[in-house]
Amino acid sequence: MSAAVAHVDLEAIGSNIRALAALAPQSKFMLAVKSNAYGHGLHEVVRTGLDSGVDSFGVLEANAGIELRESGVEVPLFAWMHGQGTDFAAAAEARVDLGVQTFWQLEAIAASDARVRPRVHLKIDTGLHRGGADRPRWAEFVTEALRLQALGKLDVVAAWSHLSDTSHSADLESTEVFIAAVEEARALGADFELLHLGASAAVIDLPQAHFDLVRVGIAAYGISPFGDRSAADLGLRPAMQLRAPVLDARHGLASIAVGYGDGIQSDPEGGAYVIVDGHIAPVVEVGVDETVVALPQGAAAVAAGGECIVFGDGSNGEATAEQWAIWGETVGDEIVTGLTRRVARSFGVS
Q: Please, what is the average pLDDT of the chain?
């Protein structure tokens, strides 16, 4: 285990959920908890979500949905990333709804011989090209799903897609593609219980994409889905703070017990800093197990065992995960999700 600790403020997550849900009051709220709840802790975040009024959870893989069912979670669950080895029967029997993106998935689900009819959500590719039936084959895809439904092999309960979030105009266009595809499917006989398209960015900026359900991921954890607005700009609170002890300090440098083996990003352009015992300390080098920082003149008393804050909500002068994403030329999602399991998680309120 690493000496670093990622402290997760569960109240911040709850506050973010409530704020985001208020932006789509007519829609059900699905909290995405993929990849161990974006690195924040699956079961702890799910409990917080339930306490905060979440209607359902998106879990990515079916196995994670089964795990949540076995832990006592009763609300609807949705999984949409399936490989050839996915146990569709077990997922259906655990009442995990299945996102279906390809013909082979549709056929495999129908052939699973589950004791409970699998509930499927049909995905139309609206332009992101992240799975889903191509628009020219959508009618064929829907027709095959309805044929299998008539045979009692599955139930078609929803239509869904992803937006590209590349621009407001592109997302509006994709929303129109989605609406047209739904109308075509209904003309073929589909009777959808749910339509869902919008994720974090659309909840905030695109009410046209709210439909029956919104799928909220990274924004609930206090990281902006936009490149031009921070979490603070949106009134969201970053939920994770990464801390690590000082290993050694001498000659104006200190080594901190966290590195890229723990998921810390390098900074190719320079400018990254941490907070060491209350002082801003620029990053000199990120190694596999430790990070070297330069101590300012006023930090002469820093010694081994002192505390370093790598990132957090900014209240202690530290950078946020969003700022580390800028330094690492990536996105905030990668900063928090990329923290490895070597880094212990602690939970509470900061």
A: 93
pLDDT in tens, 102-159: 999 999 999 998 999 999 999 999 876 778 888 899 999 999 999 999 999 999 999 9
Query: Is the confidence at residue 236, as pLDDT, over 60?
Result: yes
| Residues across the chain | 350
Give residue for tokens 């959920």. Answer: 17
Residue 317 has pLDDT above 80, yes or no: yes
DSSP E strands in 137-271: the ranges are 155-160, 194-196, 213-216, 240-250, 253-256
Residue 326 makes CB contacts below 8 A (sequence gap 6+) with none
Residue 336 CA, chain-centre distance (Å), reads: 10
Q: Write the CA distances from 304 to 4, 217, 256, 348, integer angstroms.
A: 14, 38, 9, 26
Each as own residue / partner, the long-range contacts of residues 191-194 (CB below 8 Å, 24 or more positions apart, any chain) are 191/156, 192/156, 192/157, 192/158, 192/159, 193/157, 193/158, 194/28, 194/121, 194/157, 194/158, 194/159, 194/160
pLDDT at 296: 82
Active-site residue set: 34, 260
